[in-house]
Amino acid sequence: MPSGKTIDADCGEYLIDVVENAGVPVQQHCGNVAVCGWCRMVVLQGAEHLSAPERPELLLMERELFTPNERASCQAQVLGDVIVTTPYW
Predict the structure, then answer these.
(1) Domain regions of the chain by residue span
(2) Which residues on adjacent β-strands are paired with residue 78?
């Protein structure tokens, strides 16, 4: 969202890779190591279809004051259907 694109992903692919491979730009600065928080995405539906946050992402979420429905796309692996957006799209 709001691109309206439906993108197929392999189970376990990182959300950032899925979105970028579909030609949708994603802000990020840290090289996918959960430091910058720029790649955060708002999960509109399907949060249960993303991998559980691990320690690096949890620390980032706390430091960058993520809302409960935000995830670092460089850390979240796609496990099923999910709908996301970002503040900058």
Answers:
(1) 15-78
(2) 50
Q: For residue 1, how many C-alpha atoms fall within 13 Å in the half-sphere facing its CB?
A: 11
Distance from C-alpha of 71 to C-alpha of 51, rounded to nearest angstrom: 10
- Please check whether residue 41 is in contact with residue 64, taking contact to mean a CB–CB distance below 8 angstroms: no
Residues 37-46: tens digit of each pLDDT: 999 999 999 9
pLDDT digits (tens, 9 = 90+) for 6-17: 888 999 999 999
Domain 15-78 in CATH 3.40.50.300? The answer is no
Tokens of 69: 């429905």
Question: DSSP string of 29-86?
Answer: -SSSSSSS-TTEEEEEE-GGGBPPP-HHHHHHHHHTT--TTEEETTTPBB-S--EEE-
